[in-house]
Amino acid sequence: MTSTTYEPPAAPESDLRRSGIRLGDLLFKGIAILAALAATGLLGLIAWKVLDLAWPAIQNFGLSFIWTEAWDPVTQDFGALIFIYGTVLTSLIALVIATPLSIAIALFLTEIAPRRLAAPIATMVELLAAIPSVVLGLWGILVFGPWVRDHLEPWIQATPLGALPVFSGDPSQAGILPAALVLTIMIIPITSAICRELFIRVPQDLKDGALALGSTRWEAIRGVVFAYTAPGIAAAVLLGLGRAFGEAIAVNQTIGNRNTIPTSWFEPGDSLGSKVASEYVGATSLQQASSILYLAAILMVISLATNVVAQFIVVRFERARRAV
Amino acid sequence: MSQLAAADPYDVTVKSNGLRRRRIVEKVFGLLAIGAAIFACFILIAVLTTLVFKGASSLNLDFFTKPRPLFGEKGGIADALVGSALIVGMAMIMAIPVAVLVAIYMSEYAGPKVARSLKIVLDVLNGVPAIVVGVFVFGILVVGHGQSAVYGAFALAILMLPMVSRATQEILEVVPRSLRDASFALGVTKWRTTWNIVLPAAIGGILTGVVIAVARVAGETAPLLFTTSIAASEISGDVSHALPTLPVTIFVFSESPDPGEQAAAWAAGLVLIAFVLVMNVLAKLFAGRKRRQLEGS
Q1: What interface predicted TM-score (ipTM) does this complex get?
Q2: Is the dihedral of CA A230, A236, A237, A238 positive or negative?
């Protein structure tokens, strides 16, 4: 390779070397392209294969499967509504609690805390994200669940909120509320990490300008930081939601696994991911097996849609910022 | 900003409208933000201390060297440790080369449009629920062949791929242009420049990405349920059969009514989280090295 350019171009050895070099470049580029194609193809393959697996059930039950409230292996009655309800409800409760908390944590780390305090707290929030879901679920079912049953749920019932039907019934350690709270813990680090990245990138002179005009710190954040990062926050929230939709294990451990739509949040229910996870040992009939795959396909479509929308917002947000 | 806040802007406008209210809102906001941060730290500490209190007493030599007990007798989780190590190791071998190549393609070869689309593809792939990946691998491999540790590793590799790829691509983009130009100016070909100059400069960041991805997939349960969950509880290195793993063991024990199995779940959870924490500390070390190296160049 060295000093090839100094040799006469016609020399056969140089030609050989050059073609060898070109071959190396081509080969490397080719392998890299192949890897990129494989990664792209993989996403398509997952989507196709999961739909393909669910196809017999889709043909058999049709789209009405989605709004059918049934799961009875004995009478061979299957539908997804119970699980869609559980998935959406737990995820939305988690979202409503986690979003303000995540934004507050991100603001604390970027705007309020002195750097010496911000770094260790940021590390701890990161570590919260690193707890495996199965360990969080273990804690959820054996420690957190009983605490919710003995303290949190009776306390909610004692407040005026207790009159609401969603807070009626006997407190229980496994149900919609414990599952939603465990999901909250899981998505807080995700959403707050993304929000932190967003807030750091807000230009300091914009914030200083607001403060110089006499606004308080909170008014500067509301008027400048939020205005500047609103689409990014929306994407962060959606990514957290996508994570909550897809979580199977921790929800399975804490939601109570019952095939009914609960009226009270204290009652057990089930979610799409959780149901799929609990039937891994094998369904008793082909009908049931393909219904499980139908549930997996619904879950995939919901989370893919959430993620694609989030990515779309991110792309537009970045394009807008580049334009500025 | 802190100097500005310290100047106390409130006293300038003594009787502006709603000053009291604005002050209260400001106070409440500050307290809520601090409260939220304390809450997150508290949860982490609560989970960790529970694991230590409930798990540490079961940890002894037998726990690490003996397989899962069948009927109440004393045993450990050695079978799951071996299985998890083998499966995560195989997943690394499958995922890392492809992930790094994808990242190289994105940062060294592809145009900005293609690179941006690939980024989105990887981010969406990263958002596919782990349980769906498990069902996918079940559908293409397990159906007709039966469960095996290799298939479990393949499922984990799918989860690792986007994480390692994105981390690598981000660090490759930080490698200074001048390094590549200097190499090209010496007549070095593009692929040799990438291999000998760019990758070594980025190795700290790549290792950070790999370590974080390993920590994450080592605790994944959902993709293993469909691929390598029905396994004999004996120490085995036969990867063509289903092997017991740490997360699946914790999952099964966590839903067991038997206090002995629950204690084993706590201890196994403690082992798993210790591994995850060590990996995260390693990642921090690598990340620090990367930053120093790239700043130095």
Answers
A1: 0.87
A2: positive
